[in-house]
Amino acid sequence: MENIIEKLKHMKDKLDQPFPYRDNDQIQEDFRDEFLRLSHQDNSLNGDFNDYCMNIAGTLSYVLAGKINRIPNRQIEVLQLSFFDSFPQYKFLESRISNYSDFFEEYKNFEDTRKLLMQVLR
């Protein structure tokens, strides 16, 4: 468990990166037709990705502060899902996300952190 906590401390530094707005804008442009097919409430990639990241960052804060028992159950439930499982309306992007280096790096860092957190919470 100590090894995982050390990895999480290292990951925390990687999570403190600027939001990948430029790639997000390019994604919106490249997948314009797919986004137009989504309902207004299902079409908020910036907001949805931010929610995904903030849940992970918040959970990480609890873990690093030694307050695992204070993490709300709903937060843990959401943590069990990857971004594309939480927001299936963006599945069309999943296989091509690596084409957007900043967005992909941000996604990968948060996803790796999410998986480590799940190991701690088991």
Summarize the structure.
Helices cover 70% and strands 0% of the residues. The chain has helices spanning 2-15, 21-30, 32-37, 45-64, 73-79, 83-86, 91-94, 101-121.
Plain-language structure description:
By secondary structure, this protein is mainly α. It has one domain. Helices cover 70% and strands 0% of the residues. It has 8 helices and no strands. It has helices at 2-15, 21-30, 32-37, 45-64, 73-79, 83-86, 91-94, 101-121. α1 runs antiparallel to α8 (101-121), α4 packs across α5 and α4 runs parallel beside α8. The longest helix has 21 residues, at 101-121. The model has no long low-confidence stretch (mean pLDDT 95).
How would the blueprint of this fold be written?
Layout: H1 2-15, H2 21-30, H3 32-37, H4 45-64, H5 73-79, H6 83-86, H7 91-94, H8 101-121
Helix pairs in contact: 1-4, 1-8, 4-5, 4-8
| Category by helix and strand content | mainly alpha
The helix count comes to 8
Largest sheet: none
How many DSSP E strands?
0
Extract low-pLDDT stretches.
Answer: none
- Average residue pLDDT: 95
Overall body shape? globular
What Rg, in angstroms, do the CA atoms define? 15 Å
Distance between the termini: 11 Å
Return the string of H and E elements. Answer: HHHHHHHH
Strand content: under 5%
Please indicate the count of domains: 1
Helix content: over 70%
